[in-house]
Amino acid sequence: MPDLTGDAVAYLDHAATTPVRPEALAALTEELAQVGNPSSQHTSGRRARRVVEESREAIAAALGVRAGDVVLTSGGTEADNLAVLGLYRARRAEDASRTRVLASAVEHHAVLDPVDHLGEREGADVGWLPVDDLGRVDLGWLKSELADNAERIALVTVMWANNEVGTIQPVAEAAALCAEHGIPFHSDAVQAVGSLPVDASAVDSLALSGHKTGGPVGVGALVLRRGLSPVPLAFGGGQEREIRSGTVDAAGFAALAAAVTASMADMDLRTARVRGLRDALVDGVLGSVDDVVRNGDPEHSLPGIAHLTFAGCEGDSLLLLLDAVGVECSRGSACSAGVPQPSHVLLAMGMDAATARGSLRFSLGWSSTERDVDRLLDALPAAVARARRARSRR
Ligand code: PLP
Predict the structure, then answer these.
(1) What confidence tier does 210 reach under pLDDT thresholds 50, 70, 90?
(2) 14, 171, 209, 286: which has the fewest Cβ within 10 Å?
(3) Ligand 1: residues within 6 Å at CB?
């Protein structure tokens, strides 16, 4: 494995962003050295257009859909917003009684916040799909909602796999239930693409992001079944089937395609190696530190995520103590105005707020090594002891 962070750092935050893979870097730099707007009709424009269309085909092939289904975006956040806001507005414009939106309670803010916006500003009646203590959505709840309210439901959205605890959702089953009623089903697959063999044809709409798959930041895609026409968020040149105006980023798209293709090609070997490292990390932590709980579904989980709760600790203190000795990880949930908030994901899984605040996410990826895990295991017992002393003094 290339040693991207040198001896100084054990990088255990791949779910936040993973290093750019060499294949993607090569595609990006090669295309950045060229000129040509893919919408221009001259030779340079047509060359850039060819790069875009070949990239679209490669992404579609990797995800099991048709090239025409792939819409380039500026990342996962835009793809999710376009799906949630755009599909809701389109469905409601067809039938004003379609105001109900169902979303899992553990969505990333890229879905959560547009859904909240629809509830607060656009008259949507939002239903949050509950999850169990492993973070898996309750399909029984979805079934009874569909039985009672199908004609009022504008869309349903359930993420493919959770970015905090790593739990994989029964997306194909949920999508099939919605399909029986002709209700569009969106899935945020930002954490799943590149880590799981994602079949995008199982859903109507799917978001992916470059920098979670070994591609660059600032590029992503919405995979959209033909026949769905979300109301655009931006208007302009009419690129990308008039769904997403703006000059198409040929270099970013080429790099995204290279990353997705490479991550599909080495999926089995790489994810087996990453899962082995993750399991060694979890076993090592549970064996060396008392009162630690692993969160998420141990059976159906992303290979690279270990989410742990340390009793009697503030996650933030522990994160900074580890950072000071060169181990980088994440709380997995956001701060609000600088104040650490308990994760909405953990709360939805039934954890109380104080316990939830003692949680950290360690995430591994294609460039992770045993040395990263060893660095954490060396540093953790002392850091936890210090963080516990600090909390007990409060
Ligand atoms: N959805 C999930 C599940 C994520 O983990 C992230 C990023 O953390 C996003 C969406 C946002 O993607 P992007 O950073 O490309 O906007």
Answers:
(1) very high
(2) 286
(3) 75-77, 80, 108, 110, 159, 163, 188, 190-191, 209, 220
